[in-house]
């Protein structure tokens, strides 16, 4: 039986069973008999669909996650955001010391930021992710220079001291850049 004929018969049964005007007694009786004899339409039994793994398109990592084929290195304390917390504390102390005019808070903020930034730069540089040669070359030279000045050698200043500091920082940056290129080549293999 075609769908259109089945729908037509269903409409006739419904009209006759409801006592619609225009339906004869015979039609109503036939409709009741058909309704008793015909199985009631039931909804299909719910079946539990098999869970198939959803295939997602491959995710392309952002430039912040992978650079030149080298993934961003995780810290030793990877799930714990120690670097970000250190940056927030350092920035807060830096700003508070600057606004309040307190040298101790200002220097504490600078010190914490220097340590956190140095750790992040070292990790990224020696993993071959991003080169921080100049910054990593300047940080130890600056720390040594500050130590010498605060230790009492106030005469360590001027063009000669600057030339020696820049030469030391340049040599260290050159060595760090060579290490970076070698590490990046190794990471790509």
Keywords:
189 residues, mainly alpha, 3 domains, two-stranded antiparallel sheet, 6 helices, 2 strands, 63% helix, 2% strand, elongated
Molecular structure report:
This protein is mainly α and 189 residues long. The protein has helices at 3-17, 25-37, 82-100, 103-126, 133-150, 159-188, and strands at residues 66-67, 70-71. It has 3 domains: 3-34, no CATH class; 81-126; 131-189, no CATH class. The protein is built from 6 helices and 2 strands, in the order H-H-E-E-H-H-H-H. A two-stranded antiparallel sheet has the order 1-2. A hairpin with a 2-residue loop joins strand 1 and strand 2. Helix 3 runs antiparallel to helix 4 and helix 5 (133-150) runs antiparallel to helix 6 (159-188). The longest helix is centred in the C-terminal third of the chain and has 30 residues, at 159-188. The two termini are 69 Å apart.
List the helices and strands and how they pair.
Layout: H1 3-17, H2 25-37, E1 66-67, E2 70-71, H3 82-100, H4 103-126, H5 133-150, H6 159-188
Strand neighbour order, sheet with most strands: 1-2
Q: Unreliable segments (pLDDT under 50, ≥5 consecutive)?
A: none
In DSSP terms, counting alpha (H) and pi (I) runs of 4 or more, how many helices?
6
Strand content: under 5%
Helical percentage:
55-70%
Total domain units = 3
Classify the secondary structure makeup into a structural class.
mainly alpha
Give a short overview.
Helices cover 63% and strands 2% of the residues. The protein contains six helices and two strands, in the order H-H-E-E-H-H-H-H.
